[in-house]
UniProtKB/TrEMBL annotation:
One of its GO terms (molecular function) is lyase activity. Residues 6-129 form the HotDog ACOT-type domain. It comes from Kribbella antiqua. The lineage of its organism: Bacteria, Bacillati, Actinomycetota, Actinomycetes, Propionibacteriales. Pfam families: 4HBT. Keywords: Hydrolase, Lyase. This is 3-aminobutyryl-CoA ammonia-lyase.
Length: 129
């Protein structure tokens, strides 16, 4: 039986290693955050429907601020609509800790307020019960 309900939210946190930096200033590409959205969507599907589901599409993606190696990023997915087989999700990504290579190679700080870096909307599909 499906437990898919509007408002069900799942979040993940992850340290972003320096091996993932692709650009000057230790910037990480946007695809990294989209992969994290796929991971958190999978857990939403498991919790809501007992199946990993399949990501069908994004209807909107907004990259608002940079993600850098050495950051700790939190991603969230929330169910906003439940269909027979589809679930629409809203995603957000926040930097909660920022690396501070200007201080030392391993320095970092907890941000007073999380920094919103990416927002998106997408649709997942789960098998019929």
């Amino acid at each position: 039986m499906s437990k898919a309900t509007i408002g069900l939210t799942v979040s993940h946190r992850r340290y972003v290693p320096y091996s993932h930096a692709h650009y000057a200033g230790n910037l990480v590409d946007g695809a990294y955050v989209l992969a994290l959205f796929g991971d958190v969507a999978t857990e939403v599907c498991i919790r809501a429907d007992g199946d990993e589901g399949l990501f069908a599409s994004y209807s909107d993606v907004q990259f608002l601020a940079p993600l850098r190696a050495g950051d700790v990023v939190e991603v969230k997915a929330t169910i906003t609509r439940v269909g027979n087989r589809s679930r629409e999700l809203e995603f957000s990504a926040y930097v909660v800790c920022r690396g501070r290579p200007d201080k030392s190679e391993s320095a970092a700080e907890v941000l007073a307020e999380p920094l919103v870096i990416t927002r998106a909307k997408g649709t997942v599909v789960v098998p019929v019960e």
